[in-house]
Structure prediction request, 259 residues.
Amino acid sequence: MAKVMTWIESGTLRSSNRVIAIHDRFKRYMNGQLGVPNDQIEVIRNWTHLGESAPTDRVEWRTRFGWGENETIVLHAGNQGAKQGLENVVAAAQYAEKEEVPIRFVLLGDGNQRAKLEAIGSGLRHLQFIDPLPGDEYQHTMAASDVLLVNELPGVAEMAVPSKLTSYFSTGLPVIAATDEGSVTAEEIETSGGGLRVNAGDPRALVEGALALAADPVRSQELGSAGRHYRNVVLGQEIAVEKFANTLTSLLIEVKPSG
Prediction:
């Protein structure tokens, strides 16, 4: 079945006038594995849906959620589904509690795995769940944390570019990506310079990564600034819209009937 679907996908893409990929990694796959000519593929990145928000009063928002001044808040925002493998985060909270380190893992959002995660993490002081929030509150809550987290199930290296990175990079905070080496997410973190990678499914490595960032505020600021710069120059809406316009214009020129 996989071979049949690959054949159909390859034929469909190769017969198109132009194919839009949301990441260079996918362009390389389409060119190398599906035989789509390189000059037939355009990379146009998804852009962040978040606009500029008012400055965040970190003390006010941290107090609202009961976050201590000396706690390092590691926040995962978004879907709590199977692909995210958030049992790893619960295990990291268990490890942080056992080692008595001042780290709190916060899962902001909802999903089909949330009830299960709440059950296995019941009673943990280093784990907190927050219901989905409207736009401004969502942005302020992220900005009041210390580290933003992408957590992936081991073995999903080629599945997708996590859309939450476009939002994360807007905050100017460092990102930890718990993901396989060589994954799309790992490549995005390396390219942007906006964070660090730890192995997927390794809760101890996740805690140690958060501790390393907490102990080095200069590095954390550098990573956060690099992520914001990447968001502005690569993931901006104006850049993507301009690329779409140029691509459509070139297509109109190519297919315009002669005479």
Notes: Residues 131 and 247 are 40 Å apart (CA to CA). The beta strands are 19-21, 41-43, 72-77, 103-108, 127-130, 147-151, 175-178, 195-198. The first helix runs from residue 2 to 14.
